[in-house]
Each structure stands twice: as C-alpha cells, then as structure tokens.
C-alpha cells in the first residue's frame, strides 16, 4: 500500500487552496499558540469550505485541556487529533470513548525506548515519530531513521521530523511494515506556514507513482 501523506502547519488560505488540488491525505492545523504556524482558536470557515472530504483535517495539540480540545475539535470540523505533548494514555482513552481518532506523537532520541509506547497501544489509532528537541512540538530536524528498526509495536506510524524534498529516495527505500505515512512541514516551506507547492507536487508524484 502506498504511503499516506500529511502536510502540517497550514494556515494561509491561498496556499491551502493550491495544496488541496494535489490531494494530500491529511492536512494538519496547529492549535499550539507558541507555534509559528498557529492557526488560531479555530479553522476559519473560509479555509474549511474548500477542503474536500477526501482530505482529513488533523488538529495538532500540545497538552491542551480536554474540554478545550473537544470544543476546538467540533468548531473546526476536525476528523482527527494529534497529541504532541505529555498526554497520558487516560487522556487518549477519553478521546477514544468519543470515537475521535488519535495520533500520539513521540519524541525520538538515540536513547528512546519504544517500549514506552506500549501503554498507548489500545487507546490510539496511530503513532507519530518525531525528533526529540528542547521544546514540545516539531523541531524541523531528522532523527536517525535506522532507529525505526527497534520499533516492534502493532500501531502504524507517521514518520516526521525534518523531511525535505531531497529525502524522497531515502523514504522510498525504507522498509517497515508499520510505516503508514510521512508528515512534512518546515522542509517544504518558503516561510513558516507557507509550503512550496511545486516542491510538494514533485514529492507527492514520486511517492505515489513509484518514480525516482
């Protein structure tokens, strides 16, 4: 099965409009106020109106209070949440009980123990493996992808962290039965929140059409 593609950190209406014509599988909207790509308290109606149903809207949250997260999820018409903070399995379970799909992010360092993902197995739909940094949220840096060989869990995962257009050959060479999607952000930007559409078009065509 072809890898899915998530484009994160979107907020500019014109840029999003151009992106939707290439049909990524997911678009991520960041609800963390400290992010340079903060969408605001909700996705503007203008943006929601031209995202086709085939593209899932993912809300990215960092230690958001539960009731606040639920309100933003509903107001913004999200289909999935990505938890990028220190959320416990119990928090994920509350979302699961509301039938809200959950991506739980883990920060990967050389010392990271994939056994720490085990408590989340029954309460999350996907994991996201990103590069560990000093602050919560994305770093724009890569971790050593050979580290993925240590993951033997059952949950499919998104690969994130410093992915650039030039990484396409490496990505296509990765072999892991649980690799589900790639998550791109700053490596495709001309400025925070603005993606280079031509670079993304080339990347998505190669990834989907098995071209090198």
How would you characterize the overall build of this protein?
- The strands form two sheets. Strands 1-2-3-4-5-6-7-8 form an eight-stranded parallel β-barrel. Strands 9-10 form a two-stranded antiparallel sheet.
- It is globular and about 40 Å long.
- It is an alpha/beta fold and 212 residues long.
- Helix content is 24%, strand content 22%.
Characteristic key phrases:
212 residues, TIM Barrel, alpha/beta
Count the beta strands: 10
Measured distance between first and last alpha carbons: 17 Å
Q: Quickly count the domains.
A: 1
Uncertain stretches: none
Q: What name does CATH use for the topology?
A: TIM Barrel
Overall mean pLDDT stands at 94
Query: What is the CATH level 1 assignment?
Result: Alpha Beta
CATH superfamily label: Aldolase class I
Question: What is the C-alpha radius of gyration, as a whole number of Å?
Answer: 16 Å
Main beta sheet? 8 strands, parallel, barrel
CATH architecture: Alpha-Beta Barrel
Number of helices: 6
Bin the helical content.
Answer: 10-25%
Shape: globular
Category by helix and strand content: alpha/beta
The arrangement of helices and strands along the chain is EHEHEHEHEEEHEEEH
Strand order of the largest sheet: 1-2-3-4-5-6-7-8
């Amino acid at each position: 099965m072809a890898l899915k593609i998530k484009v994160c950190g979107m907020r500019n209406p014109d840029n999003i409009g151009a992106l939707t014509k290439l049909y990524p599988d997911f678009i991520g909207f960041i609800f963390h106020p400290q992010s340079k790509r903060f969408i605001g308290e909700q996705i503007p109606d203008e943006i929601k109106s031209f995202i086709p149903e085939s593209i899932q809207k993912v809300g990215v949250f960092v230690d958001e209070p539960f009731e606040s997260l639920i309100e933003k999820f509903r107001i913004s018409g999200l289909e999935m949440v990505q938890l990028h903070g220190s959320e416990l399995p119990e928090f994920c379970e509350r979302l699961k009980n509301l039938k809200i799909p959950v991506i739980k992010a883990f920060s990967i360092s050389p010392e990271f123990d994939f056994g720490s993902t085990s408590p989340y197995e029954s309460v999350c739909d996907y994991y996201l493996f990103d590069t560990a940094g000093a602050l919560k949220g994305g770093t724009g840096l890569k971790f050593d992808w050979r580290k993925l060989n240590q993951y033997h869990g059952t949950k499919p995962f998104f690969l994130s962290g410093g992915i650039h257009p030039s990484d396409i050959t490496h990505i296509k060479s990765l072999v892991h039965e649980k690799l589900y999607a790639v998550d791109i952000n700053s490596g495709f930007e001309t400025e925070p929140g603005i993606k280079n559409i031509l670079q993304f078009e080339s990347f998505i065509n190669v990834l989907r059409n098995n071209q090198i």
